[in-house]
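step: validate -> pass
step: tokenize input -> pass
step: predict -> running
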Amino acid sequence: MQFPARLRPWLVPLLLSFGVTFVDLVAAAPNSAAPTCTFDGVEYQHRWSRQGQHEFTPAGQPDLVHWDDLITINVHAQVRDEEALAQLANAVLGNYKAARATVVRAFSTPRTPDKPAEHLAVVVFPQLTKTEFVVAHVKLVGGVGCVLVYSHREYGDDSGERVRDWLEANGATLEKKWLAWSGYPSPVALAALPDTPPESR
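step: predict -> pass
step: emit ->
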């Protein structure tokens, strides 16, 4: 909100007379700008949040039923150490297997003096009319367990072949970029987003 210039000299003493400070105004101001994130030169816009799951798609892909590229960030506030993170990574991989995904590769990187251990799963979901490639990076972000997921879909009867071709052209490079990606919103910023009604997804 922008106050008219002629009112500004009177504004501060008036607010102070009611015990209102600038800090109070900033704290009360609504944050209407949902976070975005950028990966591989593409900006992804926030589309949906519910119970710690947050989804982002590029500008031209607002439909969460039919999209080509999707970033999903799952925040697990109860995961606070490497042991719990390893359990989370095993659960994620187990869920993919239960959903009949083909596991392309899965591995863990040990802790170093600079960062804790991390985990990666790369899978493909073949379906009748679409095939989905997924790479999930399980790591601690600001001391909180997060699953950072990039998904790419191809549609049609030949979707499996097209995902295979896409992987041959992009898979190895994309995996390295995803492991190095740091352009995601923080768990604190994501927690501030209100839950979206389930039917809107």
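step: describe -> The CA atoms of residues 137 and 179 lie 7 Å apart.
step: cleanup -> pass
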